[in-house]
Amino acid sequence: MDTVFIKGLEIETLIGAYTWERSLRQCLHLDLDMAWDIHKAAQSDDLEHALDYAQVVAHIQAFAHQAQYQLVESFADHLAVHLMQDFGIRWMRLRVTKPGVNIHARQLGIEIERGQR
Ligand SMILES: Nc1nc2c(c(=O)[nH]1)N=C([C@H](O)[C@@H](O)CO)CN2
């Protein structure tokens, strides 16, 4: 199976478990790998048959705009469900990185895999 990917996508959302985080929006970095058979798109040279990564980004931005989770786990899990349903993606890996505010680490976050390749 082929892969359509999006790396280093920056989005803003309300996220955090601490009180000070509930009244501001923070930046998350997203990396996605999505299984997709590209043969039909390659043969037809038609965006209609491709997993349109611009549309995926637009969905993620809309999702992040309305989301207000405490944990990156919840954000990632719900986002994966939405994307797989809306685009018919069979398998995806999603890494969500949060800047380490007040924590002595450059990056913090999680990586999930959903579905079957
Ligand atoms: N496994 C997790 N641990 C923590 C999370 C999280 O979302 N998942 N969140 C926080 C705080 O919100 C922190 O990011 C504030 O800097 C702490 N631990």
Which key phrases capture this entry?
117 residues; alpha+beta; GTP Cyclohydrolase I, domain 2; 4-stranded antiparallel beta sheet; 3 helices; 4 strands; 33% strand; elongated; binds the ligand Nc1nc2c(c(=O)[nH]1)N=C([C@H](O)[C@@H](O)CO)CN2; isomerase activity; lyase
Could you explain how this protein is built, in words?
The chain is of the alpha+beta class and 117 residues long. It has a single domain, classed as GTP cyclohydrolase I, C-terminal domain/NADPH-dependent 7-cyano-7-deazaguanine reductase, N-terminal domain (GTP Cyclohydrolase I, domain 2, 2-Layer Sandwich), CATH 3.30.1130.10. The protein has three helices and four strands. A four-stranded antiparallel sheet has the order 1-2-3-4, with helices on one face. α2 packs across α3. The longest helix has 16 residues. The mean pLDDT is 96. The site of ligand LV4SOB2L has 11 residues, from α3.
What is this structure, in a nutshell?
The protein has helices spanning 39-44, 53-66, 72-87, and strands at 3-13, 26-35, 91-99, 107-115. By secondary structure, it is of the alpha+beta class. The chain has a single domain (3-101), classed as GTP cyclohydrolase I, C-terminal domain/NADPH-dependent 7-cyano-7-deazaguanine reductase, N-terminal domain (GTP Cyclohydrolase I, domain 2, 2-Layer Sandwich).
